[in-house]
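In full, the data:

***
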Amino acid sequence: MPGRNTLEAPKGLLRHRRTTGDEFWKKKLRDAEELKTRQAEYNEAVPTNAKVIFYESMSGARMMDSPYALFARIFDDPAFRDHHHVWSVRSQDLVPDELKDEPRVTFVTRNTDAHMYFLALAGHIIGNSLLPEHFVRKTDQKYLNTWHGIAYKALGRTEDSPLGAAGSVYNLLQATHVLTPCPFMTETELSRFSLRGVFSGSLAEIGYPRQDLMLNMHQDRASRIKEELGLDPDRKTVLYAPTWRGNKGTARFDADQLEKDIDSLTKLDANVVFQAHHIMLRHIKDVDYGNIIVPPPSIVTNELLAVTDLLISDYSSIFFDFLATNKPIVHYLYDYEAYAEERGLLLDKSELPGPIVTTSDELIATVSDLTARSYTPDEKYRRAQAKFGPYDDGQASDRTIRWFFQGDSADIRLVETRQRPSIIFWGGRLDKGKKTRDFLESVRIAAEAGDKEVTLFVAHSAKSNEAAMEQIRDLGLTVSVVARNDYEMAMTTAERDARNPDDTSKDAPNAQTTATPWQRLKSAFRRPKDPVEPADSLLSDMYEREYRRVFGDSRFDELVMFPGASHFWKKLAEHARR
């Protein structure tokens, strides 16, 4: 953890604590529409504070990954000593003891008013995955998405999922800054997350800040970690770090297989550490680890890698990080064919640096051999380092801070995401008739012409239209595809009233004589009241918010409307042109 500092938070930042009470900090909202309304109204009511930094890793799993590495670097930097840091965590149980009373750090939990308030307040937002679905970045906020690993497993748009991962696309398109660790991942994000021809922010190849935690670890921190883990200094340390199986929503892991592997690993003359992917944890609750070491959450993964002598992995991207250590990697692929069939892999076995084993006996024999002698990386290992870790020099955090906070891109490789005029084919809810076939054929023709950056925008419901999906699949990755999920637009109370002017329920007598907690919160945070907007303006604001939820600041040079587009899709399109 960064060093302690007693500097107070910016004056007035938390002045509403007493007004709001515990409900503001602890009560989670369950109603999706209420969450949307509150976030929209917080965005309108709360002025942006450039000296507040909001961090979230893996939807609040814990303080980890590149957002944590940046926090650790920034927290003790004198240039940022007047900044306030806000961390999103799933539970207050995840708050480190040394930061619980730190006045410059605030912890909030998703779906609480506190989370929404600080998300609206922060001038800088740093995340590595998906922010809440109702998040819409304000125009004066900066948002950095670091992502969270190099793509070994298939992700985004694939043969089986030609529409891709909508939430990931929205988050990346809303970002003002996106970093990648290498050209391989740059191309992956451009094509599989449909950034090419769409993304309007700054895309830079910088390296992952989390790598600095491993490459720059001080000896005293390494000693404390070894002591906390109880490592025998006379033995090598072996880390087994597998990933989960299945797909998002159907994640699983074979606990029986894991117990067999754990039993085999105990035979090693080594300190054996087991680090589960956070998605796995719910599937392996009853596993007996015997004398295998399980690290506490206070030790982040890249710190653990710094004290590891050999890594055992399967399909996890953790091995890309470990390449920078020049230490041995063993790939334990006991279910390769089944995994490759179900998930898809972007790397061939021939590209993997280090030995590949498929049985526990092979695993133990190989690890025993590698830990018993000195190790020198071979040519395949060196090629992997050059391809996947060209920026692993311990300076990624400093480069990121200069670029994101100071706008300094000197000596940073910026990637142009738009090299030609852009055109978007505005499909919406495609029908199953000739109009759809002809429309998608026009997309193909435009892409083959090669003189424009081509994007297709459709409703996610298109996935049930098999003929349309086949045409979209045939477009390949040269066409960016953005799919709008089934989502009721967020509306402020005023916008909802403007949209439903004949709804008399809002005018009904209210027997309640005291303000609700939400009314008190709005009263506490609202800026001086603006003049009442006309209904047309309110409705335009509503559609613009929804456009920005999907596309961020992106605009297009040309738009082709699907002939059968509904009123909703036409109104949304009004915000798409430059």
Notes: The longest helix spans residues 535-551. The chain has 22 helices and 17 strands. The CA atoms of residues 68 and 441 lie 46 Å apart.
